[in-house]
Design a protein that fits this description.
The chain contains nine helices and ten strands. It is an alpha/beta fold. It has a three-stranded parallel beta sheet. Strands 4-5-6 form a three-stranded antiparallel beta sheet. It starts with a strand and ends with a helix.
Length: about 230
């Protein structure tokens, strides 16, 4: 039997289990100990997003997965599910605030594929549906971001790479509000190189990432820099 040391100082044996040096220990440990089972579940429920606009433009095959894939390959499936439950209304409202003129979202079946569409108002009396192939990069990345943050799944931790890319600078205020609101529902990690987006968050919520001699370090903002950031 193998012995594992728990965070509270206790030790527990894993009867009948021999952990090979080349095997992952967490799945076996999680089966026998509630403490590590919670850690295992948390790690499995993490999601990391880098939304590629071109991935969203193409018609997508229906997917059995319940969580948005890392690059948005199954966005149409998730969007259709959200549309059926009425959870798409907040996404449409936010898109309308940033892009303007967007009234609704729909997912149509086209053969064996799903095509996501947005309804644009052309004037007071006319509206037109546009496929995502006709939308801008900024609109598509924003749509993917909103779906990732709004999907009704038990995602424990969401990481999003540079959400400000291709967005109009004037939209960063609304974007930061979206991120802050989402962080109240789940743990959220954002990577960014935008000073304008950084300036919209308190210094305590920021971490500095540096890579030197092949090693990446993550640390809190230095004390002497906090005043400048806050100002």
């Amino acid at each position: 039997a193998e012995w594992v040391h728990l965070p509270d100082g206790r030790s527990r044996s894993l009867p009948g289990k021999t952990l090979d040096e080349s095997s992952l220990a967490l799945p076996s440990i999680g089966f026998f100990t509630p403490e590590f089972h919670r850690m295992q579940r948390f790690l499995r429920e993490m999601s990391f997003y880098t939304i590629f606009p071109n991935t969203l433009r193409e018609p997508q095959k229906p997917s059995p997965t319940k969580t948005l894939n890392d690059h948005g390959e199954n966005l149409a499936t998730i969007a259709r599910r959200m549309k059926a439950s009425g959870k798409h209304t907040e996404i449409v409202a936010t898109l309308n605030k940033i892009v303007g003129g967007i009234q609704d979202m729909e997912v149509q079946q086209a053969g064996g594929f799903l095509v996501t569409q947005l309804l644009h108002s052309m004037n007071e009396n006319q509206s037109t549906w546009f496929d995502l192939s006709q939308e801008s990069d900024g609109t598509l990345r924003l749509l993917g971001l909103l779906v990732a943050l709004s999907q009704g799944t038990s995602v424990s931790f969401v990481a999003i790479e540079e959400p400000e890319l291709t967005l109009h600078p004037g939209a960063l205020g609304i974007l930061s509000d979206i991120l802050k609101e989402a962080s109240a529902r789940k743990q959220l990690l954002i990577t960014t190189q935008s000073p304008d987006l950084i300036a919209r968050f308190p210094a305590d919520s920021l971490r500095v990432v540096e890579r030197a001699e092949g090693v990446t370090t993550i640390r809190a903002v230095a004390e002497h820099q906090r005043d400048a950031i806050d100002q």
